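Fig. S4 source data, part A: sequence.
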Amino acid sequence: MAKELVPKRRALGRGIDALIRDDLARQEAPRILQLSPNEIVPNRYQPRRGMDEESLAELAESIKANGVIQPVTVRRTPTGYELVVGERRLRAAVKAGLETIPAIVRDVDDDALLPLALVENVQREDLDPIEKAEAYRVLTEEFGLTQEDLAGRLGLDRATIANTLRLLKLPKEVQDFIAEGQITMGHAKALLALRTPEAQRAACKRIINEDLSVREAEGLSETAPRKRARAPAPSATPRDVHIEAIEEELQRLLGTHVRIIQKGDKGKIEIEFYSEEDLDRILEVFEGANV
């Protein structure tokens, strides 16, 4: 049974305030209840996939000694309460054997629920890059936010959002290595320059096994085998090695397939893109790097 306590006025962090609707940000001091952890169902949009058990155990010991210093945030549902933010605190409280946990009740709709959970984790640096990418995907696809909207809400550059989302184009095995911290975002960017999942997997294994730096990983895209093509006719003129070198460098810089077609002294450059956002990302590279 929930017991209502005398509320104390608390200020939310700036990042969270920026995501809450104006009327919610202007609310008076929230109610603080003591709820049984069993009354609180998990946040269905929780971006974090896993938690470090050692860190969770340390938090549980701290809660045993000092109690839950910062209340979790919940919203009412027809059957009880749903967690908005505070996943680690809730799990640690259960682990510590607490019968009740302090909770702030907020009137939060679905449009604000995931951003609230996401911003807390981003600010605490608890999410790995793949968890962030998946959360950004849900926000753009299920909540209809543009990358510009999302960047503004989270206080990030739009290019950061776009580059993080691109991680989801990598094979699942490669994503797992990124999530585990075995390869960095810089390595991942180099892998995205490769054309096939097979090439990306093979290069990822080399990065890990040979402990390659990001710069060395970028070199893999320049030497990676291309898709098999028809053998040129015996009379065909071999491609200029300088043109091929330029092609490789453009692919590395733009993170996508580039083809230079030369006819005599003239020619054209073909740059592949896979969505409107991907095109915008490529244009930003041109603007920022003067490619």
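Fig. S4 source data, part B ends here. The first helix runs from residue 14 to 19.
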